[in-house]
What does this fold into?
Amino acid sequence: MMLICCPHCQRKNRLDASRLSAAPVCGACKQPLFNGQPTAVDANGFARHAGADLPLVVDFWAAWCGPCRQFAPTFSQSCSQHEPRARFLKVDTEAAPDLAARFGIRSIPTLLIVHQGKEVARVNGALPAGEFDRWLRSQLPTAG
Ligand SMILES: [Zn+2]
It folds into this structure.
């Protein structure tokens, strides 16, 4: 069994790992647990997802940052390819400065892989799609 945090209501769902790919819905709000799109979170939302079992791929970004805006479609596309192996989160560093400080984010975009509350890997800058994909495949831990 795995704990999966709902991207809509942030309730935790207990799910058999074999059902991950079977388009599971949230027991509380009945919305899909995976919709192929990154989830925007604040510090509280991040904590909810970090307390669940899926590895997190986190995009620390800001609206004023050109490279961040350029990278956004790559991140979204990658999300649709890698779900349900990972949960893709977007953290607006302007809205959640404490969370950015906690992870020592000095430049944006910064991409982090976090699993069980701990940083597993990070890369700075807007990577080309192929490079980002290779990085994810080499760094993503197995969920569960
Ligand atoms: Zn829900």
Summary: The pocket of zinc ion is lined by residues 6, 8-9, 11, 26, 28-29, 31 (CB under 6 Å). Residues 82 and 137 are 9 Å apart (CA to CA). The first helix runs from residue 43 to 50. The domain at 35-139 is CATH 3.40.30.10 (Glutaredoxin).
